[in-house]
Write a structure and sequence with these properties.
Layout: E1 11-15, H1 23-37, E2 42-46, H2 50-62, E3 67-72, H3 74-79, H4 81-87, E4 91-95, H5 101-106, H6 113-122, E5 124-135, E6 140-143, E7 146-148, H7 151-161, H8 168-180, E8 185-191, E9 197-207, E10 229-235, H9 239-243, H10 245-251, E11 260-265, E12 267-271, E13 277-280, E14 283-287, E15 290-303
Parallel strand pairs: 1-2, 1-3, 3-4
Antiparallel strand pairs: 5-6, 5-15, 7-9, 7-13, 8-9, 8-12, 9-10, 10-11, 12-15, 13-14
Helix pairs in contact: 1-6, 7-8
Length: about 300
């Protein structure tokens, strides 16, 4: 932990209007109102869409704020992370996405943007890990929670293609549709410091934090400050046996099963059959193979004292 806000300089607030179907914008405006009410010089950066918000992140950092506040979800945070890390600035999060798993991990208030904004001023400064995902073409993407590749990433793909229904029902239908056509994937995992592993499986999670999807503890033993990735691979056990894993995963008890492989590593290369894609922080990454790496305590996060 480091010192709290010293009261000098301005605060930059980045608002993603696309997060959480508009909740990112609403939370951002509430955060700005709270900070200004507390006498802070606030500069707001809000694009017309997520892509413009990312472009504005560099401008915000170039103006040398004391703290950067991001109003949005995990995907927004990771998309604007590079300039924040390069500048070494503290980051405060006003959760406004669908999952908000970074905020859940660190006790940042959900559903109360004013209280979350207060952490930019009153919160402790905690050094936490981030990760990078490198594709074979050299493209690098940052992430802050969990990368997944399997049934869960295919469910995300299907959900994004669907236009009906809306809300959580759309995701539930997508899960059911993917379960009906459940595929096993021949994963090859090559972790640093451990033997390579070839294993058929259904679900692969690689986590800096414990949860994805709004609190589902796919990597329940992950420590966001240890510089390691927690890898969880659910083996191909058959469609009906796999049904039992739903409750186990939600309780974080699946890692106790013999048909689940877990390991910790600072970096890992992941290969799988053509067509399988990866998602991280709830956002599309791209097809496998990828190399995933943890970076220890490189981000300063504003968290509750």
């Amino acid at each position: 932990m480091t010192e709290q806000f010293g009261g000098t300089g301005h605060i930059a607030v980045l608002v993603n209007p696309a997060s959480g179907r508009g909740s990112g914008a609403g939370g951002g405006h509430a955060a700005v109102d709270r900070l200004r009410a507390r006498g802070v010089d606030v500069r707001v950066y809000q694009g017309a869409d997520a892509e413009e918000t990312v472009a504005l992140a560099k401008k915000a950092v170039d103006e040398e704020p004391a703290v950067v506040v991001v109003a949005g979800g995990d995907g927004t945070i990771s998309s604007v992370l590079q300039p924040v890390l390069e500048a070494g600035l503290p980051l405060a999060v006003v959760p406004g996405g669908t999952g908000n798993d970074l905020a859940r991990e660190h006790g940042i208030p959900l559903g109360d943007p004013a209280a979350a904004a207060d952490l930019a001023l009153d919160g402790a400064r905690k050094r936490v890990d981030t990760g990078t995902i490198t594709a074979d073409d050299g493209t690098v993407r940052h992430f802050v929670t969990v990368l997944c590749a399997g049934l869960d990433s295919l469910t995300n793909e299907r959900t994004n293609r669907m236009t009906w229904p809306t809300g959580p029902a759309r995701y539930r239908i997508a899960v059911y549709a993917e379960w009906l056509r459940l595929k096993r994937f021949g994963y090859r995992l090559d972790p640093v410091g451990a033997p390579a592993l070839a294993q058929d499986g259904y679900v692969l999670g690689i986590g800096l934090t414990r949860s994805y999807g709004g609190g589902v503890p796919i990597c329940p033993r992950a420590d966001p400050t240890d510089g390691l990735l927690d890898v969880t691979l659910v083996h191909a056990v058959g469609r009906f046996r796999f049904m039992a894993f739903d409750g186990l995963i939600k309780a974080g008890k699946h890692v106790e099963r013999p048909d689940v492989t877990t390991l910790r590593t600072s970096a890992i290369r992941v290969e799988a059959p053509a067509g399988l894609v990866a998602y991280a922080d709830g956002e599309y990454v791209g097809p496998l193979p990828v190399t995933v790496e943890a970076h220890r305590e490189v981000l300063t996060l504003c968290v509750p004292v």
